[in-house]
Amino acid sequence: MQKIKRIWQNKFVHNYIILLFIFLSIEIIFRLISKLDFFTYDSLRIFIGINIVAFTLGFLSNFMNNTINKILNIILVLILSIYSLAELGFKNYLGVYASVSTSSQAEAVTSYIWDFVCSFRPIFYLILIPFIILILYYIFIDRKIIVSLPRKKVTLKYLSFKFIQLIVLSSLIFIYYGSLKLNFMQDKRQALTSYDLFIKPTNPSLVVKNFGIMGFGILDIKEFLLPGKEIDMKVSYNPDEIKDDISLEETEHILIDNEFWKDLIDKETNKNYNTLNKYFISNNTSFTNDFTGYFEGKNLILIMLESGSNLINNPDLYPNLSKLYNEGWTWKNYYSPRNSCSTGNNELSGMTSLYTIYNNCTANVYKNNTYFESIFNLFNNKGYLTNSFHDHFDAYYYRTTIHKNMGSSKFYKVQDMHIKYGHSYGDWASDAEMMKFYLKTLDDRDTSVPFMSWITTVTSHMPYSSSSIYNDLYYDMMPTEYSKDVRRYMSKLKVVDEAIGVLLEGLEERDILDDTVIILYADHYPYGLNSKDLSKAYGYEINIDNNAEQVPFIIYNSKLTPKVFDDYTSYINITPTVANLFNLDYDSRIYMGTDILSDDYEGMVIFADGSWKNDIAFYDSSSNNVKYYTEKTYNDEEILAINEKISLKLKMSSLAIKNNYFNYLKKKIDNYTTS
What are the tens digits of pLDDT across the range 614-625? Predict the structure, then answer.
């Protein structure tokens, strides 16, 4: 017993065991709350990593005063605890983990800090238990032990013990490195290896799965200070398999001459541009079909609905939104996956059919990019009048710049419409007032020219936790069995419904309703609401299989025969689908999405962290679990193949945005056609 006590009194052993216990406890609680698997090789790697950190700090404690050492331990554990709690909150609130590499996540919650904190589930606070245990230990137990700690003299035995500690630490680091490289410790379903993620932690969900929450924090800081080398991306390209001439009637939209593209690949010296050239020329994704030109020559109004939900399908409360929902084409398995800047990024994806960059407010960071293939430019090239509208100002997203660079001939923000708007945390502008202004712009147009308009609404934006004009306007009309916050949200939706009513009535008065197509999709679900309350309103659990991200997508025309589609889809497919329906001149290969009305369309939704969902299964990349909906299943090789395809799409999309690829490609095409 005395020997054990002496060992425990050793400063190194004492600190190493305490920190190992605390760090391990935080990790275990985090994984339990996040429903991440324990019995995997990832857990073994995480355990080794925690040992390295605890061992290193224990070693350094030999050179510190006891009081200073305890203070530093308390600060370190407090930071780790708050960080872990915040990451649980970010994942729950935004659907992604936050990164120090960008400030976008902080911007997304600082304006709504109270709503963000209120969104924390009570179970999240269990992550603070290890910190509380540490404080109690230092107050009631440790002081007695510290007092009796002997002062060590620098002897040969002392130095030998330190040398042994360094040997053990080096061995742990070597074993940890082996866990990154050894085949049996790699996930057979994971497209990126553990070593890839260690060098370049591009997917935080996978990093948390592979290295734990502490490991993610360390790697995230490392990436911020010392960015890792980009992972080489292998693109399958065989010029002999690329046909030199394929007509539109033969099956595929081909606008970019293949001989030009092949020649460009042969001459291009920039590695990133050439990787993208090879990817896109080989990206045979979409085909003409019975719906090609279905709406040719008609007008288009595309509405991105702020914080939309399928609650709009209620004829008693929302007669106008329900009219669109039930009298048009509706996709019941449409999803708008969240990311760190869901509104701006999902707007960008809807306009360009590109996946935005994980944990990056892509729309803002790359606001100066240009996209000749955007939905605006496709309609511009067809001779349409294009414009865009949003009843807020450039407080969160630089739409004045972004929409111009997308090809919108004129962007109207709230000041241009001369309508009332309040503080961003109180009342937003009225979408109904915006629609009145929009209709006036239609009166001033050249009526011989068809128009295409993009409208992003705002009234139904959070917060829902406090009283405000639109939160309260129709509050008493909403079902009393729902929570106050849900009723306030539904009150705001009523204003949106009025806006749709103003639009429909205005189009009919101008005798252009029949000649106009209205497409509506939600930027994201109302994540400012409590999940439990929202699940009650929906009638199903939204925390299962990413069901929360399921929102409306509608294509409406007064002459359409109503139809409900089962295909799984998302905003990534909007532009190529619209391009085919309106028979626009476009090249399907340069889009990440595909025409969802194609006979060859393979329905799937890809989430920001690489998870995916189709009519067969839901694959959760964070946990590596697969949930099946049918008797059909995938083997590990098939899942890996899907993950590799998705990973390549996300990488190529990211690479294209970072390098302003479409600006480069447009210049090359222009030079080719004029030479």
Answer: 999 999 998 888
Residue 232, pLDDT score: 76
CA-based nearest residue to 436, from 337, 525, 507, 540: 507
Q: Which of 233, 347, 332 is nearest to 563 (CA)?
A: 332
Question: Which pLDDT value is given to residue 237?
Answer: 80
- Give the span between the Cα atoms of 208 and 203, in whole angstroms: 9
CATH topology of domain 258-604: Alkaline Phosphatase, subunit A (3.40.720)
How many whole angstroms separate alpha carbon 348 and alpha carbon 359? Answer: 15
CB 640 within 8 A of CB 188: yes
Instruction: Please spell the DSSP secondary structure of 627-652, one letter per residue.
Output: EESSS----HHHHHHHHHHHHHHHHH
**Could you tell me the end-to-end alpha-carbon distance of the chain, in angstroms, rounded to an integer?**
89
Percent of the chain clearing pLDDT 70 (strictly above): 92
> CB-based burial of residue 470 (10 Å sphere; 0-12 exposed, 13-18 middle, 19+ buried)?
buried
Query: DSSP 3-state assignment of 625?
Result: strand
Q: Model confidence over 532-559: pLDDT tens digits?
A: 999 999 999 998 999 999 999 999 999 9
CA dihedral 153, 159, 161, 162 (to 10 degrees): 110
Cis peptide before 463 (omega within 30 of 0): yes
Q: What residue ranges do the domains of the chain occupy? A: 2-225, 258-604
β-bridge mates for residue 625, sequence order: 620
**What pLDDT does residue 105 have?**
55
- DSSP of 392-442: S-TTSS-HHHHHHHHT-S-EE-HHHHT-----TTSPPPPHHHHHHHHHHHH
Average pLDDT over residues 27-53: 93
